[in-house]
Design a protein that fits this description.
The protein is built from eight helices and eleven strands. Helices cover 40% and strands 20% of the residues. The strands form three sheets. A five-stranded parallel sheet has the order 2-1-3-4-5, sandwiched between helices. Strands 6-7-8-9 form a four-stranded antiparallel sheet, covered by helices on one side. Helix 6 packs across helix 7 and helix 6 crosses helix 8. Helix 1 links the parallel strand 1 and strand 2. By secondary structure, it is α/β, with parallel strands linked by helices. It has two domains: 124 residues, Rossmann fold (3-Layer(aba) Sandwich), CATH 3.40.50.2300; 94 residues, Arc Repressor Mutant, subunit A (Orthogonal Bundle). The structure holds calcium ion (CA). Calcium ion binds next to loops.
Length: 230
C-alpha cells in the first residue's frame, strides 16, 4: 500500500524522521512547515492522508483541520494528528475537530505505520490490497485482475482504478468532480466528461457477465455502484 502523505510539521528533525520512515514504507511524502503552506499545497493536489502537528507557528493544527473539514473538496482526506500533549481533553478536542486518529510524541515509527495503515483501510479502502467482491464481481488489487463470476474480464488501468474505488464505496453516489478527485487525483487538466468516457468503457468491459448493471447513473448527480439492481 503506497500513499501520498502530506506532513505538516514545523520541527525539522521530526520532518526528516517522518520523511525517512514513510519513504522506507513506499509512501510519497510532501512536507509543509506551517498550515498556510499546507493549504497552498492542497489547492494544487490532494494527498491520500495528512499527518498534522498540533502545535504549529501561526494557524494551529486544530484550526487547520477545521479548515480542511469545512472544504467540500478536501473534507474527506484522512487526518492523523501528532502531538506532544497526552491530555485526554486535547485528544477529545482533536477527534471532535475531525481528526481520524491521534498519536502522541514521542512515537515509534512502527506504531505510526500501523496507525496510517489502519486509517487508510478505514477511510480509503481503495488504497489497500484487499480483494473486494460484490454480486459475483471480484476485483483483486494484488494480481490486478477482475473476474465476473469465474470469467476474467479485461479492463484498462483507469477503468480498474475507477471500479476499485466504486467497489470499495458501494451504494453511494459520486459526482463527476468527486470521482476525478478520488480516482484521477489532481484533476486540474481533466474535463468532467472524461469520467463519462471511462464509465462507458468500464460498463462495456463488464457487459460479458452482466455486471455492467451494477454501475448506475443517477440523473443530475453522478454515478453509483449498487448491489441492488434497479
Ligand atoms: Ca510543532
Amino acid at each position: 500500500m503506497s500513499a501520498t502523505i502530506l506532513v505538516v510539521e514545523d520541527e525539522q528533525g521530526i520532518q526528516e524522521v517522518l520523511k525517512f520512515n514513510l519513504g522506507q514504507h513506499g509512501h510519497d511524502v510532501i512536507v509543509a512547515s506551517d498550515a498556510e503552506e499546507a493549504l497552498g499545497l492542497l489547492r494544487g493536489a490532494l494527498p491520500d492522508l495528512i499527518l498534522l502537528d498540533w502545535m504549529l507557528p501561526g494557524m494551529s493544527g486544530i484550526d487547520f483541520a477545521r479548515r480542511v473539514r469545512a472544504d467540500s473538496r478536501q473534507k474527506n482526506i484522512p487526518i492523523i494528528m501528532l502531538t506532544a500533549r497526552s491530555d485526554e481533553r486535547d485528544k477529545v478536542q482533536g477527534l471532535d475537530t475531525g481528526a481520524d486518529d491521534y498519536i502522541t510524541k514521542p512515537f515509534s515509527p512502527r506504531e505510526l505505520m500501523a496507525r496510517i495503515k489502519a486509517v487508510l483501510r478505514r477511510r480509503a479502502p481503495q488504497m489497500t490490497e484487499d480483494s473486494v467482491e460484490i454480486n459475483g464481481l471480484r476485483l483483486d488489487p494484488l494480481s490486478h485482475r477482475v473476474y465476473g463470476d469465474a470469467t476474467a474480464l479485461d479492463l484498462g488501468p483507469t477503468e480498474f482504478r475507477l471500479l476499485h474505488f466504486l467497489m470499495t464505496h458501494p451504494e453511494r453516489v459520486y459526482s463527476r468532480s468527486q470521482l476525478l478527485d478520488q480516482v484521477w487525483g489532481d484533476h486540474v487538466f481533466v474535463e468532467e466528461r472524461t469520467v463519462d468516457v471511462h464509465i462507458r468503457r468500464l460498463r462495456s468491459a463488464l457487459e460479458a457477465t452482466g455486471h455492467d448493471r451494477l454501475i448506475q447513473t443517477v440523473r443530475g448527480s453522478g454515478y453509483r455502484l449498487s448491489a441492488t439492481l434497479s
